[in-house]
Amino acid sequence: ERDLGDEYGWKQVHGDVFRPASHSMLFSAMVGAGYQVTVVVLSVIIFAILGELYTERGSMLSTAIFVYAATSPVNGYFGGSLYARMGGKIWIRQMLLSAFMLPALVCGTAFFINFIAIYYHASRAIPFGTMVAVTCICIFVILPLTLVGTVLGRNLAGQPDFPCRINAVPRPIPEKKWFMEPAVIVVLGGVLPFGSIFIEMYFIFTSFWAYKIYYVYGFMLLVFIILMIVTVCVTIVCTYFLLNAEDYRWQWTSFLAAASTSGYVYMYSFYYFFFKTKMYGLFQTAFYFGYMALFSLALGVMCGTVGYIGTSVFVRKIYSTVKID
């Protein structure tokens, strides 16, 4: 624990590192949704290990929807408390955004694909009653539970408790080498986490699209844990490089560097579509890429949140040891 001398690097930005992220409302909504998706994925995998969900075709999906609705307070709590710590005032709008962001995207995509399915008279068309039911779940279950979570989060964990105080004037960000730019870090951040789930993706895609039943959920849990660990490690390293370049915009960078894994997964889904499936025609193509986009989006939000949480702990840790006069 040395005093802050004329040192370079991350110690220089101690007065700016806890400055709220730009677009803090969107950021906290994303992180809240990411917490929720992480809990849902973990719960569904554990339920599948314990309860043999793979015996029936639709049981997996209905379990996921039920768990998603039930874990809405998680979203509200973490999103709302983060928004409050970032000094956000328009908390009702933030709550609505985090409650409806993922469901709206899912419903929008499903509605679009459904439109094509009805046009083609396909058996995959979702009946109208199901749509109404899902909308009711969103309005009467997810929204109130998110509200409860947000109120709790704002009141219990909404006070900013940063180890360093924030300077009044933002410090200018110096010029740095091209590979230290946040955009480059974001693109490279997803490579290693994608490498850790690459093999498993093939089996998951095959169970989605080739109708082979997937039943090695224990292995899936292992892959999930490895993905979390790799994501956290990679984003911490990326953030450390960024802070050493005296750039304090680490929140979005850490989130997006981890979330870029999903971009690689989506690119892999293109390869899978053209080389591993025999799909053709507008309906099958729209069906495949629409649902793959949703899958990648959920994965991205989840990985991004995990990366951000890990990095946030790391940043707090290193700045709490700095002594400032």
Automatic annotation (TrEMBL):
Keyword Membrane on entry: yes
InterPro entries tied to this protein: EMP70
Principal location: membrane
Membrane topology type: Multi-pass membrane protein
Pfam family, one: EMP70
Keywords of the record: Membrane, Signal, Transmembrane, Transmembrane helix
Family stated for the protein in its record: Belongs to the nonaspanin (TM9SF) (TC 9.A.2) family.
Name of the protein in its database record: Transmembrane 9 superfamily member
Origin species: Timema douglasi
Source organism phylogeny: Eukaryota, Metazoa, Ecdysozoa, Arthropoda, Hexapoda
